[in-house]
Amino acid sequence: MSILPARPLKYLLASIVALTAGGSDIAVAQAPDSVISQPGTAPASSFRTDRLPNGDVKPSDGVGVFDRMGAKLPDLPPEKDYKGPIDEAYGAFQRGYYLTAMDKALPRAQLGDPAAQTLIGEILSQGLGVKKDVKNAAFWYGKAAEGGDPAAMFKYALMLMEGQGVPRDKAKADDYMRKAAEAGNPSAEFNWAQILVADNPGEKGLKLALPFYEKSAEQGIADSQYAVAQIYGTLKDLPQEKKQLAREWMARAARAGFDTAQLDLGIWLVNGVGGPKDYVKGFEWLKLAANGGNVVAQNKLAHLYINAIGTPPNPIEAAKWYVLSRRAGLADPSLEDFYLGIEDDQQKAAIDAANKFRRR
After folding, report:
1. Is the CA virtual torsion 36, 272, 257, 206 positive or negative?
2. Dihedrals φ, ψ of 277, to 5°?
3. Is residue 279 helix, strand or coil?
4. Which of 227, 155, 149, 147 lies closest to 1, judged by CA?
């Protein structure tokens, strides 16, 4: 079955801001209402320069998680296929025979079978083979939630939270979300963790939420994997063995296609956060995120091309990525100085390349 989007990560990120402000080597910019904030204001560097005394290249300033507070998360992955006893109604549903599934599930649902009630709620909520009916979907999800079905408790909690088919009721929504999380529903685990962080700002909320993020992350929820990585890298009194796994969790989220994790992993690799520096891999992850349309990654990629970090220097590519990020509204005075300092034919080539860019 498909599932609804999760709560945004801005609650988690706000708590991390409070814990790490002023104590990180990654540039921090608090921007609660913006997906991206202004980049660092370090002076512009000339091409092929900006090196450390030992001759090594100096990474451009990273972008902290705070710059993406409130960023839209990707949809959560589909729920796993039903693995319980053979069920004719669910079997018909999985094969796309929705009316047959409804016919087989309805008598059982009327007799109080929570699994059948959940199935009917899913069919009605999506309009699969029948007219979409959110109100009746909420009714059946509610019945199944009362019967203890974890998937239904999660879906019904979201409907209560958003006022879909039922009046908004935060207390009831939170209660069902908690029950679904405690029953092991991975999407509910993530959302309940978000609620705990939102209701308990600071370190307390992160500690309360972490076990639920961890359980959800283990079940493949990229949003939770990203959260675990950030918390492991932030909380100071965690066991060292957990802190050492921060980068691996970030990599898992990145490999799942979460562009914000790809961005952060690239920055971590370039800056040596959570492990040794690896400029080449950092460049590769930032380029992947940039090609996917992540504006901050596009901005940072321009810096890497200018300073030959993980890649040979390339003024046209640097200018192309700057042009793309500038068009998206991300200003950067140092990159603007660089852009104005290159030759006219290089500017033209960069603009042509930017015009041909298509998200991959």
Report:
1. negative
2. -70, 145
3. helix
4. 155
In angstroms, the CA 185 to CA 223 distance is 14
- Residue-level pLDDT at 359: 82
Rounded CA separation 265/250 (Å): 6
pLDDT tens profile 186-206: 999 999 999 999 999 889 999
Nearest to 131 by CA among 93, 161, 159, 102: 102
pLDDT at residue number 84: 55
Percent of the chain residues past pLDDT 90, beyond the cut: 72
Cβ neighbours, 10 Å, residue 345 = 9
Residue 21: other Cβ atoms inside 10 A: 12
Within the chain, how many helices (H) and strands (E) appear?
18, 0
Q: How far apart are CA 197 and CA 84, in angstroms?
A: 33
79-110, pLDDT tens digit by residue? 555 455 668 898 999 899 999 999 999 999 99
Classify burial at 193, counting beta carbons within 10 Å of its beta carbon; exposed 0-12, middle 13-18, buried 19 or more.
Answer: buried
CA separation for the pair 330, 183 (Å, rounded): 43
To 5 degrees, how large is the angle CA 204–CA 207–CA 211? 150
- What is the C-alpha separation between 25 and 330, in angstroms, rounded? 22
